[in-house]
Design goal:
Helix content is 72%, strand content 0%. By secondary structure, it is mostly helical.
Length: 326
């Protein structure tokens, strides 16, 4: 019971972070509400957020770490306490789930932007500019982002060690290799085809999200060259890296739960989708009206809504009856 309570509270805490991250990513109010409603009602990994799993706690820790990091970058008065708090939460997130080490992708992007900003200040010929408060804030942010990289990676080396009495590895990676058959391309077997079919819609949603960013002219060589990335660029890069890692090294079955807990970007993609329009109004009218709206609108003509509904509802039923679901 206590575990279920912790998961429910963590899910609520993560929900509170999502609107602030959506604002940083440039979503309008309607898109933000759609993203939050989808996260709360039609989360593709709902069973893992509501059950005795660590996804909800991991999402709450990671997303609030991102909130404090982004707020600290834009608010000169709160950066002094928000950056240390962000680092602390990143560390707890890595202790909660091992894939927290991949948060270094996000932090590395922040770090590169800080380095370029620091170089810009140093190259200034104006001594007052070099010794200004913006430079001090940049150095402060740079130092704490470097610390965040360390606290994200350190748990991997601290927790993943040792052998048992028989000399067999009892590390996390050792358990994966022995019992789950996980390794580089090891899952590419004919008998794994059903799992690839289960994971395919999530991979397709990631690809569609990247293509949508390209159509909105958010992807350009100039922005990448100058590290002029918006938070959505960084969240998308994080999701793409996680997708590639899962497809190459991990069990493809876990891809939806990994992506939905690690980065809010998948919900931003859902929030921007025209296929999800109307879910907020339906949810506000009550549960029965929401069910009626889903019954009327779920279909092949709204593939994104179909994906979210099938994974949230059917996936929960399958998982509760010991069937594989991502």
């Amino acid at each position: 019971t206590s575990g279920l309570f912790v998961s429910a509270v963590s899910w609520a805490i993560a929900s509170a972070a999502l609107p602030r991250l959506a604002a940083h990513a440039g979503l309008n109010r309607k898109q933000m509400l759609t993203a939050v409603t989808t996260f709360q009602i039609l989360n593709p990994a709902s069973v893992f957020f509501a059950g005795l799993y660590s996804e909800a706690m991991y999402a709450a820790l990671t997303w609030w770490a991102l909130v404090f990091s982004l707020d600290g970058s834009t608010d000169p008065t709160s950066i002094w306490w928000q950056m240390p708090l962000s680092t602390l939460l990143f560390g707890f997130a890595s202790l909660t789930r091992m894939n927290g080490c991949f948060n270094v992708v996000i932090i590395a992007c922040f770090l590169l932007q800080d380095v370029l900003m620091f170089r810009k200040h140093i190259r200034s010929n104006n001594l007052s500019t070099c010794l200004s408060a913006p430079l001090l804030r940049t150095v402060w942010r740079l130092a704490w982002n470097m610390t965040s990289v360390a606290v994200c990676v350190l748990p991997v080396f601290v927790l993943d060690y040792g052998v048992d009495e028989q000399g067999l590895s009892r590390t996390y990676s050792g358990l994966q290799a022995k019992f789950w058959g996980v390794g580089f391309l090891s899952q590419y077997q004919f008998r794994q085809m059903p799992n690839f079919c289960i994971a395919a819609p999530t991979v397709a949603l990631v690809v569609w999200g990247i293509l949508s960013m390209h159509r909105r002219n958010q992807l350009s060589w100039a922005s990448f060259k100058d590290a002029a990335w918006s938070p959505e660029h960084i969240f998308a890069a994080h999701s793409v890296v996680l997708t590639v890692v899962v497809l190459l090294f991990a069990h493809v079955q876990i891809i939806a739960r990994v992506l939905t807990a690690a980065s809010p970007w998948l919900f931003f993609v859902l929030g921007r989708s025209p296929g999800m329009s109307g879910i907020v109004d339906a949810a506000n009218r009550g549960f029965m009206q929401l069910c009626s709206w889903l019954y009327s609108n779920v279909g092949l003509h709204r593939p994104v809504l179909l994906y979210a509904t099938v994974y949230a509802v059917v996936g929960t039923v399958l998982h509760a009856n010991n069937f594989p679901i991502t």
